[in-house]
Design goal:
There is one protein chain. The protein has an eight-stranded antiparallel sheet with strand order 4-3-2-1-5-6-7-8, with helices on both faces. Helix 3 runs antiparallel to helix 5. The chain has six helices and eight strands; from the N terminus they run αααββββααββββα. By secondary structure, the chain is of the alpha+beta class. Helices cover about 40% and strands about 25% of the residues. The relative contact order is 0.10. It has a domain of about 140 residues: Nuclear Transport Factor 2, Chain: A (Roll), CATH 3.10.450.40.
């Protein structure tokens, strides 16, 4: 009703004055406008979240494509530089920079942890430093009696796609190597590699975690 009165008054003024008038009419639809604005913000947030997910996938795919050195090759190179037992290897940004390297964690015979950086383009060791870890005994226990190394686990998982990481899962009842692979289309998958047989199976625990998320 108020809207009609305002428009009628403006129209009458325009007719009397013989000119034109521009009316900015406010209505009682403020609640609807607020709802629309809120929906727009939510839509924008969802769009940004989807874009962030796509950017993450693109970054991961770029990391994979930028590496000419495979996980087993990176592990072999790290062991030539630092002797010991490789517990994990991961293709990742170096200190959150744009430079991608293989990061290989090596546990030496004197229980010292070493983090070795390997160039993904040529396999050369870029540097190494010692790390402080508090799970040494747990790792040693998990690997006791194991006949499959991290390098062998990475080779086994390579049949499922490009291996971007491999690491020891020393927690829980079922100890195993865990490997992540990525295919050319960008899809990634987690696998478990048996410590004794190198048999590769899908990581069902990871699938369940994804479903819960």
């Amino acid at each position: 009703m108020k809207r009609n009165i305002v428009i009628a008054a403006v129209t009458a003024a325009a007719l009397i004055g013989g000119g034109t008038a521009t009316a900015l009419a406010t209505t009682g639809g403020d609640e609807g406008s607020a709802r629309q604005a809120a929906n727009t913000r939510l839509s924008d947030d969802d769009g940004r979240a989807d874009q962030d997910d796509r950017d993450d996938r693109d970054d991961d795919a770029a990391q994979v494509s930028s590496s000419d050195v495979t996980a087993p090759e990176a592990i072999a190179s790290a062991l030539k530089h630092t002797s010991g037992t490789v517990v994990s290897a991961e293709l990742d940004d170096e200190d959150d920079s744009d430079k991608v390297v293989w990061k290989v964690d090596v546990l030496s015979g004197d229980n010292t942890w070493h983090s070795v950086s390997v160039d993904p383009s040529n396999g050369k060791v870029l540097g190494a430093h010692t790390d402080d870890e508090d799970d040494t005994a747990q790792v040693r226990t998990a690997l006791k009696g194991s006949s499959v190394t991290a390098e062998e686990a990475a080779k086994a998982a390579a049949g499922k796609g490009v291996v971007t990481s491999v690491g020891l899962d020393e927690d829980g009842k079922d100890k195993s190597w865990e490997a992540e692979t990525r295919k050319s289309g960008g899809a990634e998958q987690d696998w478990k590699v048996d410590l004794a047989t190198a048999k590769v199976t899908a990581d069902r625990d990871d699938d369940q975690d994804d479903d819960q998320d």
